[in-house]
Write a structure and sequence with these properties.
about 525 residues, about 70% helix, transmembrane, Amino acid/polyamine transporter I, membrane
């Protein structure tokens, strides 16, 4: 990518070439003092998004849904197609991240890119991002609880998973991840480095086992097998629902953006973290998806199982080995949830720093001992637990939580990209940018976001009943309703988008680290 930046942007940052600015000077030029410890290197920044995307966790948790909503054809070809679409979204986001490397990320850039109504654009982007982040933390914890119970059932057949137990185990998992995030960012960085190798090595072990151990595999043509067991008569609709598997997996890559204030050379390393995490996850995920699909002995037998991917593992490698592989999967899910909560807390910290949340002064405070936004961590934990509660009675809770995650995040991704498109040549890029490809890539990204958002708000199972209802639209309506009520009654008079704490020299004097 070209590293040239226009003179007008240089003037906006004090007539100094932004590439020559150190990270703190870049932050000061945007009006913020340094409050967080900057210890994330390029690999650490990549690791946060790669871990949140987490192809092992995403594919195993969504595989059963896709197996019945389109079957192998949607799982493999849908993975490939959606991965390309998500890469368009990620590249457009990366371009924005290079221009505005702050923890505020999406809502901050929306406020800066809007020509008019900056406060409103920033406000709604931030609340959508908040809802999506909370949904991601909740969904990952919920998935880990489901697979942990699957492992327990294999070990002790008398154990019966229930919705109540799933919710309680999810709560324990999320609270434990909150405790881990309460300590230093250095600990989180170390755990994220470990998670990358856990994912890569674990994926290699699972794929190798599925390729070498089973005495038979499906023929090459099996990848074209299509099935619709959703309860809907339209095969097209059922197949489109199957795309949820890939879209659910490819969420959370804004984590690299949110960690900008804790990343070295953030104007370059944050956008690279976004694009590299998506590309590497797409390739690794395709390998894992094919390994699972071709190891399935019988479509109907797998479709009838309580957990289709577990059934494939047992049939392919035996019960004992399947238990060991499930430990890898559960570990990947736990790492994923930890990284997602880290990103979630940084978004809350930044949004509160600009006074956009109830009790903002409380949520953007930083622990003087650990230099981490501890209060924001526990707000993220609490909100995630509230989102998990419908699982107490709903058997479609997981797909609903996933929909909140996908729709909330992707709409938040799309707003800054749309505003960047509206600016046209007036957009001032950072060191990492797409050049003349910025506009066409952005158009594709926004188009995909609109399509997928509509799709995932629709019913996921038929017949639609109290227990099968997709409550994602309700959750998002409540979030946006509260945000709108607050905006029109009070916030619009005092919130005008990202705030500046003063001139660069003034905010530099406010640095806490």
């Amino acid at each position: 990518m070209s590293s040239r930046i226009s003179a007008s942007r240089a003037r906006a940052r004090g007539a100094v070439d932004p590439i020559a600015l150190d990270d703190d000077a870049t932050l000061h030029a945007m009006g913020y003092p340094r409050k967080l410890t900057r210890r994330f290197q390029a690999f650490d920044n990549f690791a946060i998004s790669f871990t949140v995307i987490n192809v092992v966790a995403g594919i195993f948790s969504g595989f059963g849904f896709g197996w019945n909503a389109g079957g192998p054809a949607i799982l493999v070809f849908g993975w490939t197609g959606v991965s390309v679409m998500v890469l368009f979204v990620g590249a457009s986001m990366a371009e924005v991240a290079s221009a505005y490397p702050t923890s505020g990320a999406l809502y901050f850039s929306a406020g800066k890119l809007a020509r008019r109504h900056k406060g409103a654009w920033s406000w709604y982007t931030g609340w959508l991002n908040f809802a999506g982040q909370v949904g991601g933390t909740a969904a990952t914890g919920y998935a880990a609880a489901i697979f942990l119970q699957a492992l327990i059932t294999l070990q002790w057949p008398g154990y019966e998973p229930t919705g109540h137990r799933t919710v309680l185990i999810t709560a324990l998992i999320i609270v434990a991840q909150g405790l881990a995030n309460t300590y230093t960012v250095q600990l989180v960085a170390v755990l994220n480095r470990i998670s990358v190798w856990w994912l890569l090595c674990g994926l290699a072990v699972i794929v190798t086992a599925l390729v070498t151990v089973p005495d038979q595999h499906q023929p090459a043509s099996f990848v074209t097998h299509f099935a619709n067991n959703t309860g809907f008569t339209s095969g097209l609709y059922g197949g489109m629902l199957g795309l949820l598997v890939t879209s659910w997996t490819f969420t959370g890559f804004d984590g690299s953006f949110h960690m900008s204030e804790e990343t070295v050379r953030a104007t370059v390393n944050a956008p690279k973290g976004i694009t590299r995490s998506i590309a590497s996850s797409a390739l690794a995920g395709l390998v894992l998806m094919c390994a699972l699909v071709y190891s399935a002995r019988d479509y109907d037998r797998v479709a009838a199982a309580d957990s289709p991917p577990v059934r494939i593992l047992i049939d392919g490698v035996g019960l004992a080995a399947a238990k060991a592989l499930l430990l890898i999967v559960i570990g990947a899910m736990l790492f994923c949830g930890l990284a997602n909560l880290t990103s979630n807390a940084r978004q809350i910290f930044a949004f509160s720093r600009d006074g956009a949340m109830p009790g903002s002064r409380w949520w953007h405070s930083v622990s003087p001992r650990t230099r981490t936004p501890v209060n924001a961590v526990w707000l993220a934990v609490g909100c995630s637990l509230v989102l998990v509660l419908p699982g107490w009675w709903s058997h479609t809770a997981f797909t609903a939580i996933v929909s909140v995650n996908v729709v909330g995040l992707f709409l938040a991704y799309g707003i800054p990209i749309l505003l960047r498109l509206r600016l046209g040549d007036a957009f001032q890029p950072g060191p990492w940018h797409l050049g003349r490809w910025g506009r066409p890539v952005g158009v594709v990204a926004v188009t995909w976001i609109l399509f997928s958002s509509v799709l995932f708000m629709l019913p996921h199972a038929a017949p639609v009943t109290v227990t099968s209802f997709n409550y994602a639209p309700v959750v998002l309506a409540v979030v946006l309703g509260v945000a709108s009520l607050w905006w029109f009654t009070a916030a619009r008079r005092r919130f005008h988008g990202p705030v500046s704490y003063g001139r660069p020299d003034e905010v530099a004097a406010m640095d806490l680290v």
